[in-house]
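Example record

One chain of 203 residues, shown exactly as stored in the release files.
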Amino acid sequence: MHNSDVSDYLTTHHLDLIMAKLNDITTSQLSLSGDIISLRDAHSKLLIDLDVKFKKLKSNLSNCIEAVDLQQKVIEEHSQTIKTMESKISQISDQSQNFGSNLENCKTTVENPSTKINNINSGNEGIASGPRPVLDLAELKDRVARMNNLIVYGIHESDDVSDECLCTKIFDATTSIVAGCRSYHVVHTQRISSKTLNKPQLL
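Predicted structure tokens for this chain:
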């Protein structure tokens, strides 16, 4: 084999090696390009997923803010309701005190029935003037019962009746009872001997 032939052989061999290496590099580049494309697609998909999750999170956060604002409004309304209730309770307390004061004034104003009855024979005119009708004991008891119901109603239903009106009704009822006691006392006193009657009696 001549030197030229040897040289050609080596050159061809080297060229084959170089071509093989180039083919390997090309294959690696293609594989790497495929990996890069896959990574890019995965990255794009990840960005899309993150964007969807971020929008959902943002929506949930907005709903939470609205819920908190609504809850705050409810708390403020409850606070205002409590203040209104406290004001009404204070008004009821004041009305109760006024009712108690007016009732005491009414008790002071209305003369004691027993005093009226005991003063009949001493010349006092009493509450009722003119002829005195005979009052049955059952009617007298009924008047007392109505008086009691009126007071109980006034205490428990004071919001429906003014204190002045209630005191007037109590005064009128008391006057009726006193008049009835007077009539009953006078009629039955006449039937009892003055010798056995030490003092006026209310049966």
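Notes: The radius of gyration is 55 Å.
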